Amino acid sequence: xxxxxxTDAEIDRKSGMRTIxxxxxxxxxxxxxxxxxxxxxxxxxxxxxxVISVATPFYYKAAVDALAPVADAAExxxxxxxxxxxxxxxxxxxxxxxxxxxxxxxVIFARVGQRALRKLALETFEHMHALSLRYHITRKTGGLxxxxxxxxxxxxxxxxxMLFSIGPLILELIFISAILFFVFDVWYLAVVVLxxxxxxxxxxxxxxxxxxxxxEMNDQDTDANQKAIDSLLNFETVKYFGAEQREAMRxxxxxxxxxxxxxxxxxxxxxxxFGQSVLITAGLVIVMVMAAIGVQNGQLTVGDFVMVNAYMIxxxxxxxxxxxxxxxxxxxxxxxxxxxxxxxxxxxVTDKPDAKALKVTGGSIQFKAVDFGYDADRxxxxxLDLEVKPGQTVAVVGPSGSxxxxxxxxxxxxxxxxxxxxxxDGQDIRDITQTSLHDALGIVPQDTVLFNDTIGYNxxxxxxxxxxxxxxxxxxxxxxxxxxxxxxDGYETTVGERGLKLSGGEKQRVGIARTLLKNPPILLLDExxxxxxxxxxxxxxxxxRSMGQGRSVITIAHRLSTVVxxxxxxxxxxxxxxxxxxxxxxxELGARYSSMWHRQLADEDEGNAQxx
Length: 612
Fold this sequence. Notes:
4-stranded antiparallel beta sheet
């Protein structure tokens, strides 16, 4: 059996058709008759503009013949009666009407195009948030944002040029071909068709070659953009290691590749433009020579000669942009294809069709025989059984890599377990909606990341619609209010990219205030006070302890002194639960927890001695 080989061109063609099929519903939505009306009106106006554009040279010809009368001129009586001045004015009016209809078409269609762009951009944005954490940690944010940006711009270009450049050009070519055939001679049509055919073949061939160069240029652009964003996000790290020059060289290396591809693009464009000019000029000269011979032989008037010239210019002007338009359309299809590939990325964690909202009655949490690994060959949690009773505070401790933070990610259902189950008040979290699950959970993470906005905005993010008084109350509870009001702009102080204008402790307290404002029935503290000094930590611990009253709390901790008051302490090691009990019970047991406790005490004593 012969194996079928699919070429890159066929793949690109299928991808292009897929993209057009996906864009079409945004232009002709089943539920929006007003959009359909606008599309139809825009197409009607487009046709009118083309008809007027094609009729205009007739008045140009008539005006010329009126100025240079020919004995056998066979103009319609109405045109002859108008005279040269009237014909010239009519010619000007028609040109103005053609431009006016084109602008009217753009005005009518603008809302359709912008609506399509907005819906596509929103759908892509929503889909990005629906994808799993696993997907996001394997992708580069800079490259991802570039794909979305280019994809949305590609849609805009496709709508504008495919509908309003290629469509009208084809319509105009049909009209002009009919005029050349019926008004002049079949040989005029033959020369024009042959010229356009060779021109299009040459343009498409060269442009296909240039598209591959453009793809390479895009890849280099994405790579350079990613390196720039990555470097700027890690500004402090770059400074710490004095790596400014190293980062500049990495960026320049990517830009060097972009430069090489851009030069190829420019050289190939020069070749394309010159080749197009040769073909168009050859066709134009042949047609004009034929018309000149016709005038000399008395078969055509001077007006006919001018009209043929007008039609040839009318054809060649848009054809001059055909290579650019075709290349950009191909590129737009590629860019949009990348965006639609993104939209087709499956959502790893999804709600079941019959998923119901979570009902928190007491706040009990149960991990039952949970197996989980981020990769198939690396198991993190192994048959883990963990229970948090309503209103209980359970601390999870253990060495790095033991699976502590993974418990929080599974509770939020950023991932689904490989085996076993996670339930809240007896409800498997896979059977409930993710929105209701996240509404019931609050977290203070180890590294609080803030939006590049004001302190007030970041605190208020904890609960939509929170009042100013509620924001201030939460900030006071998190012991950050006094600091905020001491700032010149108070709660309107911007925190910078990822909150870099604030210290680690200040960021952490904003994160705590945000969660206090949310006031969730279940609380997860993931190294919540790790960035705070000892005195502030005590204040915050009091706030967190107070907030934990009547709630189920899971505290993930490295510093054991922060969890001595927990109702239960669970010790993880290599994904297994190896010990559990209160602080006193585990010390009395004299095993893993006791060893960790005494080691930390010794480290603290040594640190205090060095300070003294």
